[in-house]
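chain below, 159 aa
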Amino acid sequence: MLHTGDRVVHPLHGAGVIEGVVERMIDDEPVQYYVLRPAFGDTELFLPVNGCEKLGIRPVCSRAQAERFLAELDSVVCGESKGWNQRYRENMQHIRSGELREVAQVIKSLAARECRRGLSTGEKKMLEQAMQILESELAFALDRPAERIAEMLRVHLCR
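prediction:
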């Protein structure tokens, strides 16, 4: 059970704060939703209380996990270059996993491809989304500004 003020990670939206619980009527049945405010943007997400685990909602990593992740960033490997459709599908799978290392792999692969050939509009958006996911979680875990985290990620992943 999550509580107001908890910091959690949504695999596709990054880290955010639970602002409360609301009840909505769906097919004449009351359904409870967590209200999640992502770190980036001014949206609110409504997450079904009974479906958070299935969605991949998890607590923000600890400071120690974040520091260990940053120390190992240089060892993240680029994915294989494939056709656009297959590459896009695989990158989305990595992002949906919610795992820091897999999201970092997407960033490193797309950044390398951008240097070599450039990216399609969809891949540029995916790169931006993946960066925001990592930035938001690491900023929460390390209690640092997202801009500082973004600089560190670019140094290690976008070269």
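The radius of gyration is 17 Å. The helical segments are 52-55, 63-71, 84-97, 100-116, 121-142, 146-157.
thats it, cya
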